[in-house]
Amino acid sequence: MAPSGAHSRLTEALNSSRSDLLTRDQLERLLGPENVEVVYQAVESTGEGDVNTQELLEWLYGPKEAIDDLERQGSIKIGHTEDDIQKFGYLMEDSACQTALTRFRKKALSLAHEIRERSGKPQAEAYIEQLCVEKILKGCLFVGHEKTDLDSIAGAIGGAYLWRGQATSAEKELNGEIMYALKWAGLEVPPYFDATPGALVPDEHGKLLPICLVDHNEEKQMVPSLRSLPNRKKRIVGLIDHHALAENMSSEKPLFMDVRPWGSMSSIIAHSFIRGHRVIPKSIARILLAAILSDTLNLQSVTTTNADRFLVTVLCLFGECENPDQLARDMFRSKTEWIVNLGAYEMTRGDQKDFSCNGWKFGISVLEVTDVEPVLRVADELIMELRILKVEKGKIDHDEHDRRKELDFAFIFVVDVTKQESQLLIAGGRELALARAAFPERPLMSAKPGLEAPGSTIRADETLMHVGGIVSRKAEFVPAFFAVLSSSWQTHKPANSTLSEEQARSKEAEDEIHKAMRTLDQDSYSDSVHIVRNYKKLSLAMHEKTNIPQAVQ
Question: Which of 129, 156, 294, 409 is the most exposed place for a label (fewest CB within 10 A)?
Answer without folding.
Answer: 129
